[in-house]
Amino acid sequence: MVFNQTAIILIGFQNDYFLKDGALHGALESSEAAGLALKNTVNLIKHLKDTPILLINTPIVFTSDYSEITQPVGILKTIKEIGAFKHGTTGCETVAEIKAFSDRIITVPGKRGLNAFSNTSLEQLLQSHDITDVVFAGAVTSICIDTTARTALDKGYSVTILKDCTTGRSSFEQEFYCEEIFPLYAEAITSSQLTEQL
């Protein structure tokens, strides 16, 4: 893995997940665990911001009537019912800690579901920078992280998922995915292990 062929893809670092009054804050394993994942991610960005590594933010944002959700089931049904990630609301905004690096992080709009490649220019951005390795951080581990990471693998990228920079719906889920699921198709490591590899 080398800096100029690696991208770190941030998923779900938005107020509706990470603020205490966020619409989906209760969906994450715990405030402490979610906060730690965010803190570790911010520390990683600080460490890498002066390198050639590509930093990408892929927020999920819906229109006011959620017309993009044509089959409202599971988490997407919940998002629609409680009005999460709605365009123009504080909840859909990227958390301040990540937004502080907006001059360094490229935001890719258009994510309307579980997969950051769907309906976005993410793949074109990766290709234009000759990226071969993608690294994932964010929420939720079992949903958007897993879905996007599997798609990245299918598209031919080498995939790494940061165990200490992701957060799930429960500690059991987080541990299960990091120890049993991700190693089946990706490298599951910590942010400190990543910096050692680069």
Q: Quick recap of the structure?
A:
The protein is α/β, with parallel strands linked by helices and 198 residues long. Helices cover 37% and strands 17% of the residues.
List the helices and strands and how they pair.
Blueprint: E1 6-11, H1 15-18, H2 31-48, E2 54-58, H3 74-82, H4 96-99, E3 106-107, H5 122-128, E4 133-139, H6 141-154, E5 158-167, H7 171-181, E6 187-189, H8 191-197
Parallel strand pairs: 1-2, 1-4, 2-3, 4-5, 5-6
Structure commentary:
By secondary structure, this protein is an alpha/beta fold. 37% of the residues lie in helices and 17% in strands. A six-stranded parallel sheet has the order 3-2-1-4-5-6, sandwiched between helices. Strand 5, helix 7 and strand 6 form a beta-alpha-beta unit. The chain is globular, with a radius of gyration of 15 Å.
DSSP strand count? 6
The end-to-end span amounts to 6 Å
In percent, how much strand structure appears in the residues?
15-25%
Order of strands in the sheet with most strands: 3-2-1-4-5-6
Structural class: alpha/beta
Order of helices and strands: EHHEHHEHEHEHEH
Question: Count of helical segments?
Answer: 8
> Spans with pLDDT under 50 lasting ≥5 residues?
none
The description of the largest β-sheet is:
6 strands, parallel
Radius of gyration: 15 Å
Oligomer: single chain
Task: Please supply descriptive tags for the structure shown above.
6 strands; 8 helices; 17% strand; 198 residues; alpha/beta; six-stranded parallel beta sheet; 37% helix
